[in-house]
Amino acid sequence: MNLMTRLSAMAALVLAVPANAQTPERIETAAFSMVNQWGDATDALLSDANGVTRISLNSAAASLNAATSAYLDGNFYGGLFEFSVHDGYRVTGFSFSGSFEGLLHVPPNPDGTPGNGLAYNSGNVEFSAGSRPYGILYGEHSMRVDMLDGAMPFDMSIGQLSLTTDFNLSMQGLILVSAYPTVTPENPSGIDAFASLRVVNPVFTIYTMAVPEPDHYAMLLAGLALVGVLRRRQKKYRQFYKIDRMILHADHAM
């Protein structure tokens, strides 16, 4: 069985897994509320201060995790996060961050030469943002890893926004792993290989700022006007003071 055939079989295995029962989870902050319409695990508010809100995607971490020492395994995750922006606030950007962690091990032959087994992993995550109802795409990113033995962090950011209306964030991910044993004359049944891959610490970061109320704008404009008046008076006073100094100097010179 070649590699492409194996991957096709793995994908079919993942997609054939029935979906779990899903219960929407709601997170409330001063600036917005978030509901994960497809979540089957409780996401958590990590922090919310100074216009920066961090939300742990526990549902994604629970799903995007697979390991095997016997042929094929995999997992899929899809999350649809509906955001409602509260009055008096605007959303200026958001990001999806985390890290891929993978482990690959193929047992060597008894003499230390590479074994004929196989350990493989592959992962992909996609992050996008758009208006609700749909129509405007604010941005999208994706990241893929293959044959990862170690850790690889990622951070997908979408910024320079000013959203005061509802919007959606969506995240999809796919994890595939496979492992085939090393077969030797001494071990005709094979020595197990191992492959794993997972997404660790997936987090949404939402950036917000307060929108000044109309009376705050009025006070700001009044303050700017007062500053302008004071500056004009100061300039006028300096001019008169300069003229008086010149006259006084002329009197002393006579």
TrEMBL record:
* Domain of life from the UniProt record: Bacteria
Keyword set includes Signal: yes
* Keywords of this entry: Signal
Question: Residues in domain Ice-binding protein C-terminal?
Answer: 210-233
Pfam families, per this entry? PEP-CTERM
Using the record, list the residue span of the signal peptide; answer none if the entry has no such feature. 1-21
Cited InterPro entries: Ice-binding_C
Q: What is this protein called?
A: PEP-CTERM sorting domain-containing protein
Origin species, per record, is: Massilia frigida
